[in-house]
Amino acid sequence: MHAQTFVSEWNTLLKPEAYRTEIDMDGERTGVVRTFLQSPLKNDLALELGEFFYQLRAALDGAIYKMTVVEGGGSDPPADENRIEFPVYPTKRKFDSSACNQGPLPSDLKKWLESIQPYNASKTVDAKTAEFVRVLKLIHDCARKDRHRKLHAVAAIPTDTTFKFDIAPPGVLSFAQPIPANFMNNESIFLRFAVKGPAITRQDQIKLTSNVTIEVAIQEIPHATGPALGQELNRMVAAISALINVFEDGYK
To answer: Rounded CA gap, 67 and 75, in Å?
Structure first.
């Protein structure tokens, strides 16, 4: 639900009518191209994304909680209920002292859970398992930020910018350079340019046609933008589904 809401709101940022674009001369022969959001977003993308991560992490914690109840003789709530969580720890000491490891879960399950801890990632020789551990840690890190009530930084990054300037003669384009921008800001400069020839005295002496690809980026997953980010989010969901299925199959 949260992913669908995020996508729906994101799609509004892909429509040309969502923006107003202006050419602003910051000198007689140099200028920038600014874009403005025509209206504020209806939903907070950062909050939707945070809730998405939180629910993935909560599903894992819920599975361990239910298993602890079953293995503990059915007592609900179980002992140390506030400490029970799915283990994703950076050190063996943290895992050893966790409620999950010290609780009533079967020893073979505890050994398997320890084998997929981030601190054991370098010992993993199976590429599939190593990838699973990586995704599990990514889920944990993203959800931990939301748990601390810190918003996820979401950006709408312009890429593959193509443009055509129409400049009143005898002026000609000297150079044009796309620059990093975030179209989610109320105002964003995404192109800088210069003109050879007479000084620009009127705004209508320059016209611009541009095409811009806009891709989503998240601060917590800097290695993936656009389609690559969507693939990472799908891997997160698949990892959680696989774990839940393993737990459910074990307790049928």
So the answer is: 11
Overall number of domains in the chain: 2
**Residue 27, pLDDT above cutoff 70:** yes
Q: Is residue 20 part of a domain?
A: yes
d(CA 100, CA 68): 8
Model confidence band, residue 49 (pLDDT cutoffs 50, 70, 90): confident
Whether residues 129 and 244 fall in one domain: yes
Q: Please tell me the distance from the alpha carbon of residue 34 to that of residue 13, in angstroms, as a whole number.
A: 16
Reduced to 3 states (helix: H, G, I; strand: E, B; else coil), residue 214 is strand
Q: What is the mean pLDDT of the chain?
A: 89
Query: In terms of domains, do 162 and 147 share one?
Result: no
The residue among 70, 72, 101 whose CA lies nearest residue 84 is: 101
- Cβ-based burial of 223 (10 A; exposed 0-12, middle 13-18, buried ≥19): exposed
19 vs 203: which has the higher pLDDT: 19
Same domain, 59 and 74: yes
